[in-house]
Amino acid sequence: MINRTLHREIDVLKKMFIDLGALVEDRLRKACIILETGDNDLAEEIIRTDNEIDHMEVQIEEECLKVLALHQPVASDLRLIVAIIKINNELERIGDMAVGIAKRVQVIHKKGGVSFAVDYRQMAVKVLGMIRMSLDALVTENADLARRIFHEDEEVDALRDKAYKAVVKELDADTGHAAALLNIYLLSRHLERIGDRACNIAEEVIYLVEGDIVRNE
């Protein structure tokens, strides 16, 4: 009876977690659209609804702690709860970074007088794909899929370096818009850090499936 109750509560927890993942993915997708379009209304929506993600993150953490306290799960059930607690925090931070992208694009467009020195479409698509892949790996408990994310991260780092060079080149040609250009470069840092969060999720998936602690260097 206790096991049935535990697994019922774990199923509820999984559903809450999947809903949070879908919400964070939606926010990130919209942030990627803003990078290309500068849509201020969409930016305001992301900023305004950030508290939804924060609220869900707290609910999931509280549910995890309740399950741990009441049922004291072991083995794979315990690993799942620990993984959800850690990934829950990663998802909340990804939501914060989506807000950061929205705010930074607003600042760039308010300053005016400078066009984007970097085309972020490839990097945005890559990072969004990494988040989707990491959540798919978690839901399907697929460690091989999780490991693929580490290779994707190397490409994201290379695109960040490319963005840096493009901004430096633009600064050499146009020092009058240094603040806007700096913000343009910092967008690549937001995207890179989201990629890093996807790697952190992948590490937790591998721990969940195989019981091995890995670190992507």
UniProtKB/TrEMBL annotation:
Biological process terms in GO annotation: intracellular phosphate ion homeostasis; negative regulation of phosphate metabolic process; phosphate ion transport
Recorded GO CC terms: cytoplasm
Domain PhoU: 19-105, 121-205
Subcellular location: Cytoplasm
Signal peptide, first to last residue: none
Function: Plays a role in the regulation of phosphate uptake.
Subunit note: Homodimer.
The name this protein goes by in its record: Phosphate-specific transport system accessory protein PhoU
Species per Swiss-Prot/TrEMBL record: Candidatus Electrothrix aarhusensis
